[in-house]
Every structure is written in structure tokens, then in C-alpha cells.
Design a protein that fits this description.
Distance between the termini: 59 Å
Mean pLDDT: 88
Low-confidence stretches: 1-14, 249-255
Shape: rod-shaped
Structural class: alpha/beta
Largest sheet: 7 strands, mixed
Number of strands: 19
Radius of gyration: 48 Å
Number of helices: 23
């Protein structure tokens, strides 16, 4: 085993690639029917509105000039609408005199007025004039009836051309569709000007060039007297479209005759007059700027492409890179749709291809999230027996912090063994249930002490608890945490002894424990066979920690520390060196220590005196100064009654020194 993390990719986890693309195919299959769902067409239409107004292609010169029947004209002329046709006759004469090549009225003259007015208007009509007609569609039980409302016959007999001004609104009442008829109003105006154009294919979309009043527009009253109101040659060789363009039509919230919402309504909040829409249609036909939607089959292929591209980008699972890939794909479809719209005058809605890509990413994320949840549950179940709940929760949030397979780390190892357990077992050999209850009552608070300090319980060896710190999660102050756990263990044993004495009287067993703590480099990871393994530690540091625990009984102290642990605890506890022992693999003997008290008690007189004398005791024994050693040991014994057994051992050593 090595310390590297297992690969996180799906492929590394053994999931075949075909599953990714099968998932993409399923997502595409579920989304493709949406293409044929009529309400979805409105979403595509709104996207067209947004993208089509970004840097629209503009004709070099507007193809028409608009003469607006607007509020200023109503005020100047002094007549309520509709105006007398004699006035329209004057307009035709004025425009002809100003050099207009084609005059097109976006007004339907279907009903007679006064004979004088109609005759005056008919006299000025000719082959340079287009009059609007309207196709009225009426749904009937047996089918759809289309009725054409045409201008009066005398007007047509006078030579005027007829142009169908009907338009078809989408389901949201926006005007986006080119009129299909060859005899459309704009097409007739182009024909009279000598620029005949083929009609747009069915379903073609209008490319708008700006919001309301984007075309050159003058008021009706100005067109009646262009010499006084307009620059010279303003109407020279122009196609002039005459129609309603009331100011109230500029508000999208107010209805007005012959006004329509267009893609610019979303950005400008204004409606566009029908006569200006006709001018826009004219330029669409004249310059072939109308937009053709791609067939549904192409959209199906784009949806499939979006799903499969997303699958290709997510074959290695979901990460921050996948988020970037998702953003890139969505941007690719939207920017691509705009580029094709602008360069090829083709509309391929990016909505469903982008949705397919996001759906695949979302599905991939959902599957990975479910797998991650399963992994976290597995980690929680595996480590809840060994780690504190806080550490288990941390591992569940970040399983990458767990490196299985073995790695080298600096750890603090703790061994805690129960004193006199063999004797207790012999005494209670006929009461196994009571023995089990007692040992469990002891191991429970000992384990709680480890977990309270963020330690990992490695194993229980009979009545012995083995634990370690700084794995699987980092713990920078692991020696201190191990020492605190040892102190908690001693307190827990004292508490248990009091409880047992209260419950069972003077005959109750009295527990004592010995603790050994050592700090150093170890190998930590999964140890065992392919059938069973445990998360454990190996190394000389572990062996020495176990030996220190056994020495605690020999030296008559509760806690024995290795040198690295003692060095890390100098600022937190009052320590004394117990002895120097031979360690396998080392030429020099290793110092071992014990904890006397927390560092806050360092100023206690007896403790301060002991700390002053104790190093001299060890030096005198080591140097063979018998008399001095005996005196010092006895003095220290009086200063620290809790170490009487330890100093009794030193007294025997001092006594054994030759005189």
C-alpha cells in the first residue's frame, strides 16, 4: 500500500464510459418531445427577441420613409381621425411633386365616405400607389375561413396596387413572423419601385433594426408641405409609407391602433407602429435579412449533441472543473446561436441544447452526490467506533482528509492498562457476567476520555486501550491532547472507584490504571488481510509507548512519557525525568518522564523544591555518591508522598551503591 489517495474519477471507480453516454441519451430522449410542445416555442421566441437585438445588421440606407399620422398632425390639421380622403389626395400630390417614387398607404380604404372625397382620392391614384388590404381569418366548425378586405373598386380601377398588410402574431402577441403572401404590402411596394423580391419562406422571422421611430419619420402635416417643413429632396426617389403612429403607441402598457410588441419591447418597453413594421419587412425582403428557423430535426440533433458533450465533459465526475465546463457549454450554445443568427441569418434556439447539457451535468452531480453520501455513511459507520462524533462529522464532510492505504505521520500513541486485572479475573472466575460488567464500566469512561480529546481508538486488548492522535485527521497539538486524555482517564478511574464503593461497600474492587504515551513517526493506514483489516498504526513509536505503559507499574507512577512527548508538554505540565532506559535500535539510553501537576502549580513551594532537588538525585545516583543520594531521596520522598513508591525504588538503588 502507499499513501496516495484512490483516483476519484468514475473511470477509476470502475464505471464504464458507456453508462455516461447512455445517461446522456436518456436525458436527450426525455427532452426532445419538449421541442414539439407549443408553449416551449414561446421560450424559444423570447430568446430570439433577446439575441436578435444584439448588434443587428443595419441596411446601408433605410428602404423607406415613414409619414406618420400622429398627434402633432391631428393638432395641425384640426380634424379628428379618420380624415377626409381629400386630404389624402393632397398628400399624394405633394409626395409626387417632392419626387417620391412609391406611395404606400398602410390604411384600409374599404368603406365609402362622401362621393366627393372618394372621387378626389381616386383621381390622384395611379400605378405608383399601394393601398393596404387585410386578410381576416375566422375559425369555423368546418374549417378556417379567410376573408380579404380590399380597398374600394374605384380606387383599384384608378390603377392603385393592392398589398396585403396582414401580419401574424405569436402566442404571446409579439410580432416576429414575416408575412408569407407574395402580394404582401411591403412586397408590392418593392415591386412598384422596380425591386421585386421573392416572398419569405413560411416561418421566417423578422430581423428588426431598432425600437420605435428607428426609420426616418416625418409628421403627416409636414409631408403636406415639404418645401416649408423638410429639407430639399427629402422624398426624392423614396418609397414612402403612410400610416398611424400615435405617441401613445410608444408605451407597451397602453393599447393603440395598429401597434405591435417587437423584440425591442423587452429592452425598450415600447410598441412599434404597424407602418414602421411594414418598413422593416420591406428591408428584410430587399436585403434578404429575414431569419430562417432551423428544422425541428436539426434541433433534435442539437439536443443530442448538447447531452453528449456534457457527458464527455463529466466522465471524471463532478468538480469545479465540471462547473466551468457547464458554463462553457451553455455559453457555447448561446454565443453560437447568436453567431449563426448574425452570420448565417439562421435561428437555432439554444434553450433546449443548453438545457440538455445542464440536465446531464445535473444528473451527473446527483449521481455523484448520492455516491458521496454513501461514502460518507460508510466512513461514519467505519469510524464511529473509534473516533469522536466531531471527528466523524468532519470526515463525513471531507472524506478526502482520509488517506487509506498507509502513510507516514508523526503521532502520539497512548496505551492504558488496568492494574490487577488478572487477580480480579481469578476472583470473579465464577461470575463472568459481573466481570464483563465491571470491565465495560471501566472501558467506557476510558474510551470517552480519548474521544473527548479528539483521539482515535485503535483497539481494545483485553483490559488495555490503545489510542492515537493526529490521524486520520490532523491535530497539531496531539501530544497535549494525549496527555489531557491520560489525566481524564485517571479522574474517571477515581470516580468509578467511588461509585463502586458506594454500591458494593468496602469489598468493592478498586481499579488503577497505568498510562504510557510516546510521540514519533509511525505508519498509519489499513492493516490486515483482504478478508479483514483495521485502521491502525505500526512502528517503533508504538512499541515504545507499550513499553512505557508497562514501566508505569515498575516505577510506581500512573503516567510515563517518552522524550518527544515530554518536550512538547514542558509549557503545559510540571514534569520530572524518571530514568533513562535502553531502547532497541538506539545506542544512547532514552529518558522517560512523568507528570506531576499542571503548569499552574509550578510555584507551589514543595513542588518547586522537588523540581530543584530531583535532578541532583538522579545525578548523585548515577555518579555513585551514596550518602548524598540517600539523603536527597529521603528528602524528595517527604516532598512528594504520591511518588513514594518511585522514590522507594531510588532508595534501593542508592542503598546498593558501594560505600
Amino acid at each position: 500500500m502507499n499513501g496516495k489517495q484512490p483516483a476519484s474519477s468514475d473511470h477509476a471507480r470502475g464505471e464504464p464510459l458507456w453508462r455516461h453516454f447512455a445517461m446522456a441519451g436518456l436525458v436527450a430522449a426525455l427532452l426532445i418531445p419538449v421541442l414539439f410542445f407549443p408553449p416551449f416555442r414561446l421560450i424559444e421566441a423570447r430568446l430570439y427577441d433577446i439575441l436578435s437585438v444584439i448588434s443587428p445588421p443595419l441596411p446601408a440606407q433605410p428602404g423607406a420613409v415613414v409619414v406618420a399620422i400622429d398627434e402633432p398632425s391631428i393638432g395641425e390639421i384640426g380634424q379628428r381621425w379618420p380624415w377626409s380622403r381629400e386630404l389624402h389626395a393632397k398628400l399624394v400630390e405633394s409626395l409626387r411633386a417632392a419626387g417620391a417614387k412609391v406611395i404606400a398607404f398602410d390604411i384600409i380604404f374599404a368603406d365609402p365616405t362622401t362621393e366627393e372625397a372618394d372621387t378626389a382620392f381616386a383621381k390622384v391614384l395611379g400605378p405608383d400607389v399601394v393601398l393596404a388590404a387585410d386578410d381576416v381569418t375566422t375559425p369555423l366548425a368546418q374549417g378556417i375561413q379567410v376573408t380579404r378586405v380590399s380597398p374600394l373598386d374605384p380606387f383599384l380601377d384608378a390603377g392603385a396596387a393592392i398589398g396585403v398588410a396582414s401580419v401574424h402574431l405569436d402566442g404571446d402577441a409579439y410580432l416576429r413572423r414575416m408575412p408569407p403572401a407574395q402580394e404582401s404590402f411591403a412586397a408590392e411596394a418593392l415591386r412598384l419601385k422596380g425591386e421585386p423580391q421573392a416572398s419569405a419562406p413560411d416561418g421566417a422571422l423578422i430581423q428588426y433594426f431598432g425600437p420605435a421611430r428607428s426609420y426616418p419619420t416625418v409628421s403627416y402635416y409636414q409631408a403636406l408641405d415639404p418645401e416649408n417643413f423638410l429639407p430639399p429632396g427629402f422624398f426624392k426617389d423614396q418609397t414612402v409609407l403612410v400610416g398611424l403612429s400615435l405617441k401613445q403607441a410608444t408605451s407597451a402598457d397602453i393599447g393603440a391602433p395598429d401597434t405591435f410588441p417587437t423584440p425591442y419591447t423587452l429592452t425598450e418597453g415600447t410598441l412599434t407602429a404597424g407602418v414602421e413594421v411594414q418598413a422593416t419587412i420591406l428591408d428584410n425582403l430587399r436585403h434578404n435579412l429575414y431569419v430562417l428557423p432551423v428544422p425541428r430535426l436539426v434541433m433534435v440533433l442539437l439536443v443530442i449533441a448538447g447531452a453528449f458533450l456534457a457527458a464527455a465533459f463529466s466522465t471524471h465526475g463532478v468538480s469545479w472543473r465540471t462547473g466551468l465546463a457547464a458554463a462553457f457549454l451553455v455559453a457555447f450554445f448561446f454565443v453560437g446561436a447568436w453567431a449563426v443568427l448574425r452570420l448565417g441569418r439562421v435561428w437555432a434556439s439554444p434553450a433546449l441544447p443548453a438545457a440538455a447539457a445542464l440536465a446531464v451535468f445535473g444528473t451527473r452531480f446527483g449521481l455523484d452526490y448520492a455516491r458521496e453520501r454513501h461514502l460518507r455513511r460508510t466512513v461514519s459507520e467505519a469510524f464511529s467506533r473509534y473516533l469522536s462524533p466531531d471527528l466523524v462529522a468532519q470526515l463525513a464532510r471531507d472524506p478526502s482528509a482520509l488517506k487509506l492505504g498507509g502513510e507516514r505521520r508523526n503521532l502520539s500513541i497512548l496505551f492504558c492498562d488496568v492494574r490487577g486485572f488478572t487477580t480480579l479475573s481469578e476472583t470473579l472466575k465464577d461470575e463472568p457476567e459481573r466481570l464483563t460488567t465491571l470491565i465495560n464500566r471501566l472501558l467506557d469512561p476510558l474510551s470517552e476520555a480519548v474521544l473527548a480529546e479528539g483521539g482515535t481508538i485503535d483497539k481494545y486488548i483485553g483490559d488495555c486501550v490503545m489510542a492515537f492522535w493526529n490521524a486520520p485527521l490532523p491535530s497539531p497539538d496531539h501530544p497535549l491532547r494525549a496527555a489531557r486524555a491520560a489525566m481524564r482517564m485517571l479522574e474517571a478511574v477515581d470516580t468509578l472507584n467511588v461509585e463502586l464503593r458506594q454500591e458494593q461497600g468496602e469489598d468493592a474492587p478498586r481499579f488503577a490504571v497505568g498510562v504510557g504515551i510516546n510521540t514519533g513517526d509511525c505508519v498509519v493506514g489499513n492493516v490486515g488481510s483482504r478478508w479483514r483489516y483495521d485502521y491502525s498504526v505500526l512502528g517503533d513509536t508504538v512499541n515504545l509507548a507499550s513499553r512505557l505503559e508497562s514501566l508505569s507499574k515498575e516505577y510506581g507512577v500512573s503516567i510515563v512519557l517518552g522524550p518527544a512527548t515530554a518536550k512538547a508538554l514542558q509549557e503545559h505540565f510540571v514534569l520530572i525525568e524518571l530514568d533513562r532506559i535502553a531502547v532497541k535500535g538506539r545506542a544512547e539510553k532514552t529518558a522517560i518522564f512523568t507528570i506531576l501537576a499542571p503548569a499552574a502549580q509550578h510555584q507551589d513551594p514543595a513542588l518547586a523544591k522537588l523540581m530543584e532537588l530531583h535532578p541532583t538525585v538522579l545525578d548523585s545516583i548515577g555518579a555513585g555518591r551514596r550518602v548524598e543520594a540517600l539523603e536527597l531521596v529521603r528528602h524528595c520522598q517527604t516532598l512528594a508522598p504520591s511518588l513514594s513508591k518511585y522514590y522507594g525504588k531510588l532508595l534501593l538503588k542508592a542503598t546498593a551503591i558501594p560505600e
